[in-house]
Specification:
Elements (H helix, E strand, L loop, with lengths): L20 H5 L1 H4 L3 H16 L8 E3 L1 H7 L3 H13 L3 E5 L12 E5 L19 H13 L3 H9 L25 E3 L5 E3 L1
Helix pairs in contact: 3-5, 5-6
Amino acid sequence: MGIPGRQRSKGIKGQWAPRTIDMLRSPAHRALSLSALRVLARLEIELADHGGNDNGKLPVTYDDFEAYGVHRHSIAPGIREAEALGFIEITERGQAGNAEFRRPTLFRITFRNTGRADPTDEWRQIKTEEEAKAIARQARKNRNPVSVFAKSRCRNRHRKPQIHSAETTTTCVSAESTTTLDISGGIRTQ
């Protein structure tokens, strides 16, 4: 009934982002880390800033995530985790660089409508909490091969890169006779 003389609120004031109770109870949602939850929340804010449109084309940068409170080193693991657990999809990978080469990553929230399609709810495919935790743990620590290569290549930024010559004693082409080692161990002169 309530207190006499007071009217009950008729709804939520301001913008809001719906999440179903099924999703909140799901093993996939319970396995999300704080970073992944913040990544997801920041993407929902971006969708609201676009008037609920453009799901699948939501541009969010590392600076956007960092301003929202995701530690810079936790952004990539949080994104990988939210994607692996089926809450988001990267529709176009971004690129860091100078002004004309820079572009943000574009995202889709799987539990929200896109302009043409209903939600896909990939998170529903995860049935147990153990499975969800294993997927989340694996996603947080696995990097794609490109980023692992980039990190190992840039480990010491102050070291000069080695320059390999196109012509060395092992690769030069010459008209003179060369000596090669046969696989069987014998030496052959050409």
